[in-house]
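Hello, quick one for you while I still have it in my head. Could you read through the record and tell me how the tokens relate to the sequence? No rush at all, and the record is pasted right below.
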Amino acid sequence: MSNKAFTEVNEIIAHMPDEYVKKIPANFMKMIIENMDCDYHFNYDVSKDYKDQDISDEAHQIMTLLYIRYWSNGESIEDILK
């Protein structure tokens, strides 16, 4: 995974409701933060749906993993981010 993907994931998580963020284990969040590219700036546009964001394939894979492991309860990632 690229460091830019971790930066994108961290920015997406920053816009999520706390109830979902709290479900991510601390060691997973630590891994995301430690592997971010601090020189890369990604802005999550809250006026757009998740599917309409310019997110890398790698970041989308990480978000899918988070969804499957920690959030999957019938809601889509788009629903969570609304």
